[in-house]
Every structure is written in C-alpha cells, then in structure tokens.
C-alpha cells in the first residue's frame, strides 16, 4: 500500500467515527481468502457463517501492528480470547474453537507466524521497546494498549491463550513455563491432576497484587477441581501501571474494583486438545458463565 493509500485508509477509519485516539485502519476480512496461515488452517470451518472477521492495522510510533479480530455477534457475552504470539498455532486453534463454542471475541496478533515483532519494516524498528507482543501493554505501546483493551466489553472476562516448550528449565523467557505442584509459594495445585494436566507445562496462570496467601483469584477452585494446576503471579507496580507489560500484569494493575477477570492458559506447543480441555473446565467457573 502506498503512502497516500495508508493516509486515506487511516483517514477513512477516523471519519467513520472510530473511537480510537489515533487512526486505526479497520478492514473486513474474508476468511476464505485471507492471507493469514491461522485462518487458512480453518478455511472450511462452518463457524465462519456466523462470525465476523476484520483486521485492525495501526502504527504505534515505529511499531506496525496487525490484529485479527473475530467476533460472534450472536453471542457477544462470551469471553475475550487473546492470542498475542503468532507462532503458537495451537493457542489460536484452541481460541477459534472456544469462540465457536462459547462466543465472545477473539483477538490475535498477526506477525507472519513469528512470536516477536521483527526489527525493520514489518515490526518494531530495532525493537527499542520489547519485541514481545505480550510485553507491550502500557506506556511502551500506548495505541496497542488502548486498541486491545478498547475491544473488551465492560466486565468481559479475558482468557490469554499460549503454548510453550516442554520442560522445567526456567520460568517465563522464551515461552518456557513450568509449574511444580509442590511449589506452594506459587502454585494452587490440583490434587486430581493427571495425564497431560500433570506434565507441568499444561497449566492456568492467574495474577494479582496480593501475596498468594491472601489472594483470592477467580476460578482457582473450579480449575483445581477439574484437575488443572493454577500458577499465581504476584504483580507489583503502581495502580494504573502495566507491570512487565503483559496483559495479565496490565489488567491486574488496572484501576478497577473488582479487577477484570483474567486467566491465562498454557499448553505444550501443538497441543490444542489440552488447551481446549482446560477451556472447557474454565467455562464452568461462575465468573465465565455468560449471563
Ligand atoms: Zn505465548
């Protein structure tokens, strides 16, 4: 797209009454022909008949973002499903299945199948800020932050969907998440976890400001009763801040009372079935049951 076309698209978006603080170009998307691998894998899904699909494209300083937004207008009260990492295909697949099953809205960062935004034209120039789309909430990505949070309805619960590499070599970092159920400082362990749910990589994650001993995060009882271990992250930082720039930190520090419900789900790379199995448990939690 040429320079003038971009300006025109941005101008039209603004003119169309969008509430964005800066131009965000919204375009409807045909999932049958869209040039995104995540959608191509599901080209024949009958759910498209009732889903609406669009892209949002915008620049945030040097950053160039593309979000795929899929909504179920027939069931808007479902959760907000968020897939920030474009290399975690099973997370997207589970999210689309969840949207088809439970309604709501799915937002995925489109980044050519890569986890991190690339230096240069397609992504953040030189990554002066975090290259990880799940570290750019808050002041480092103000339009990204406002756009993603602006797609959430008031009170809509949020599910962050991720996959990770197997093993316990470290926490966080390059997508490696591992939970030791004996780690009572960090983990609400399920006494009935078995099979894949006991592999340490297939877990739910919740965050809050209180120390774990005082924390009462939502859905822990439901998830534990369904055999799912729940890791707890205590988030520090001033109210209204963004912590480490992840969506979980951003929402935990948001000035809302009560805080918006957020649950992250992690399965091993490629294991959409286990991610979906955790989603099915989570959707029995009262905080997620649609009114
Ligand atoms: Zn991820």
Summarize the structure.
The chain is of the alpha/beta class and 291 residues long. 22% of the residues lie in helices and 20% in strands.
What does this structure look like?
The chain is α/β, with parallel strands linked by helices and 291 residues long. It has helices spanning 3-15, 37-40, 89-102, 142-150, 220-225, 247-252, 272-282, and strands at residues 25-28, 52-60, 63-71, 80-83, 105-109, 158-164, 187-188, 203-208, 230-234, 262-268. It has a ten-stranded mixed beta sheet with strand order 1-2-3-5-4-6-10-8-9-7, sandwiched between helices. Helices cover 22% and strands 20% of the residues. The protein contains seven helices and ten strands. The chain has one domain (24-169, 176-288): 3-Layer(aba) Sandwich (Aminopeptidase), CATH 3.40.630. The structure holds zinc ion. Zinc ion binds next to loops.
Question: How is the topology of this model organized?
Answer:
Elements (H helix, E strand, L loop, with lengths): L2 H13 L9 E4 L8 H4 L11 E9 L2 E9 L8 E4 L5 H14 L2 E5 L32 H9 L7 E7 L22 E2 L14 E6 L11 H6 L4 E5 L12 H6 L9 E7 L3 H11 L9
Parallel strand pairs: 4-5, 4-6, 6-10, 8-9
Antiparallel strand pairs: 1-2, 2-3, 3-5, 7-9, 8-10
Helix pairs in contact: 3-7
């Amino acid at each position: 797209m040429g320079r003038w076309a971009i300006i025109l698209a941005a101008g039209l978006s603004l003119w169309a009454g969008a509430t964005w603080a800066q131009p965000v170009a919204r375009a409807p998307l045909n999932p049958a022909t869209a040039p995104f691998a995540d959608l191509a894998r599901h080209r024949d899904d009958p759910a498209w008949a009732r889903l609406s699909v669009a892209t949002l494209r915008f620049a945030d300083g040097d950053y160039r973002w593309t979000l795929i937004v899929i909504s179920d207008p027939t069931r808007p009260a479902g959760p907000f499903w968020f897939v920030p990492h474009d290399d975690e295909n099973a997370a997207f697949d589970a999210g689309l299945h969840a949207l088809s099953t439970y309604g709501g809205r799915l937002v995925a960062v489109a980044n050519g199948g890569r986890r991190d935004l690339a230096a240069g034209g397609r992504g953040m120039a030189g990554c002066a800020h975090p290259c990880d789309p799940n570290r750019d909430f808050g002041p480092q990505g103000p339009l990204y932050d406002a756009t993603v949070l602006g797609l959430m309805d008031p009170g809509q619960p949020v599910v962050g969907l991720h996959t990770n590499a197997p093993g316990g070599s470290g926490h966080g970092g390059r997508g490696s998440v591992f939970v030791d159920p004996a780690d009572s400082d960090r983990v609400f362990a399920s006494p009935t976890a078995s099979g894949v749910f006991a592999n340490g990589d297939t877990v739910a994650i919740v965050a809050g400001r209180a120390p774990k001993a005082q924390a009462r995060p939502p859905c822990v009882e439901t998830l534990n009763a369904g055999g799912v271990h729940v890791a707890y992250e205590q988030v520090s930082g001033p109210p209204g801040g963004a912590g480490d720039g992840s969506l979980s930190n951003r929402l935990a520090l948001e000035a809302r009372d009560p805080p918006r419900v957020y649950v992250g789900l992690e399965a091993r790379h490629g294991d959409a079935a286990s991610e979906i199995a955790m989603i099915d448990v989570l959707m029995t939690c009262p905080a997620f049951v649609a009114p």
